[in-house]
């Protein structure tokens, strides 16, 4: 697949909302790495043993991000210094001496803008993740409050399912998110059961009918917030 075809494929997946959310896997690309096993086909182009990967600095941990930014900066400075030292001989020395030191402040400004834009991306990701968590918590709270309008047996079952979902999220899903191994391929069974329980209810009053509709919307909102939370992780 060519570069243009790959870009077109990514645009189609973004437009369809079907872009894979699994983290990329770095694969070897040379015959000398005999001890490493190759992985699954590329999630985007479908080609086996794909050797092209796209990385964004904002997805790195803060320590590694700082190492990349400062390391890259010092590398560019070292290459520039070595190039000038090699060329600063003979007649070229006069040309280099004619360069004004006033060029240094603009270079510092450019570096500062790069760091600022990178930090802004990280802050935006944190803000979106916090928003998804708050929206999920609010939706679950609404389910618990509205469940009081349902029959006693259904209310107790609904509260138990929400409690189990919270425990599973805290003890299982959050550690997986920290390791970037959480998946969206399956729906949480507790929320799925809570949604089925709500839809299977036969309302006996207008209040229960309204509660059933609002609980269904709250559960769908919680599922969407969970999806956004996992994607941001």
The tally of strands reads 0
Order of helices and strands: HHHHHHH
- Ends distance: 29 Å
How can the largest sheet be summarized? none
Range of helix content: 55-70%
> DSSP helix count?
7
What count of domains describes the coordinates?
3
Structural class: mainly alpha
What's the overall average pLDDT, rounded?
A: 76
Q: How would the global form be characterised? A: elongated
Cα radius of gyration in angstroms: 27 Å
Q: Which regions have little confidence, pLDDT < 50, spanning 5+ residues?
A: 21-39
Q: Please report which band the strand proportion falls in: under 5%, 5-15%, 15-25%, 25-35%, 35-45% or over 45%.
A: under 5%
Please name the defining characteristics of this protein.
about 230 residues; about 65% helix; 3 domains; mainly alpha; single chain; elongated; 7 helices
Can you describe what's shown?
The chain is an all-alpha fold and 233 residues long. The protein folds into three domains: 54 residues, no CATH class; 59 residues, no CATH class; 110 residues. Helix content is 66%, strand content 0%. The longest helix is centred in the middle third of the chain and has 43 residues. The radius of gyration is 27 Å and the shape is elongated. About 8% of the residues have low confidence.
Set down the secondary structure blueprint.
Layout: H1 3-16, H2 62-87, H3 92-97, H4 104-146, H5 152-178, H6 189-199, H7 206-232
Helix pairs in contact: 4-7, 5-6, 6-7
Please summarize what this structure is.
The chain has helices at residues 3-16, 62-87, 92-97, 104-146, 152-178, 189-199, 206-232. By secondary structure, it is mostly helical.
